[in-house]
Amino acid sequence: MLLAALIVLSGFAWTRVFESTETTEVATRCNIPTSSAQQSPAPVPAPTDGPVATPVGRMLPRDGLNDTAPIPPQDVGVRVLNSNGEVNQATLISQELTNLGFGKGGEPDNDPVYTAYNLNCHGQIRFGESGARAARTLSLIVPCAQLVRDQRGDATVSLALGSEFDGIKSTQEAKRILQKLQNWDAKHGQGGARQVSQAPRISDEMLSRARDVHC
Fold first, then answer.
1. What is the Cα–Cα distance from 59 to 64, expressed in whole angstroms?
2. DSSP letter at 53?
3. 180 FRET partner, CA 20 to 30 A, in 41, 133, 136, 148?
4. Cβ contacts of 214 within 8 Å, gap of 6 or more
5. Helix (H, G, I), strand (E, B) or coil at 95
6. Tens of pLDDT along the chain (215 residues)?
7. How far is Cα 177 from Cα 83, in angstroms, rounded to an integer?
């Protein structure tokens, strides 16, 4: 009897975990960009386990960079984009990222993709092939932003702020990881391109907890 009850409870717990993961995936999905001439935003792509090709780039699932190791925040050049029409928000978030130790990938600006300011989600972290590890680092403190791989040739990343963006979400675990990366960088006296090939080992469990937030 007791064993049967434990089996039922275990199954219920795993169902809740699955539903929570699925709900978060849906909550972080963004609409496809449209031009300012169109009256309404394009629909959100249907759920998928793989990347979705769109005009902004390939929209990845939330776990799309789980196998990618982060790098120290000072080696991450971030440019914040206004994709929701909120005045001065991009500038304020850019300064907050600087305060957290991130580098600057350009001055805050209006989004050249969602020109109608109709990014209807929390936001997007856009990056090219060379910036995957930088995007992984940024995703630790903006865990509700969608990952988008585009065609840029450098290692910079863009943080596009959507209509549901409600600020930087730095969990205690995320702060510990950033501090660990910063300390490692200071100890080894390296930075920039040399840092890309090396980084301290961060456990998968720690990385997962850093992004464990409600979106």
1. 9
2. E
3. 148
4. 24
5. helix
6. 544 443 433 343 333 333 456 677 888 999 999 755 444 555 555 445 556 777 889 999 999 999 999 999 999 999 999 999 999 999 999 999 999 999 999 999 999 999 999 999 999 999 999 999 999 999 999 999 999 999 999 999 999 999 999 999 889 999 999 999 999 988 876 544 444 456 778 999 999 999 999 88
7. 28
71 contacts 127 by C-beta, under 8 angstroms: no
Q: What residue type is 45 in one-letter code?
A: P
Q: Which long-range contacts (CB under 8 A, 24 or more apart) does 15-24 make?
A: 24/62, 24/214, 24/215
Q: Using an 8 Å Cβ cutoff, are 54 and 32 in contact? A: yes
Report the distance separating Cα 170 and Cα 209, nearest Å.
11
Domain boundaries, the chain: 53-210
E-strand ranges in 13-164 read 52-54, 57-60, 77-82, 103-104, 109-110, 123-127, 146-149, 157-161
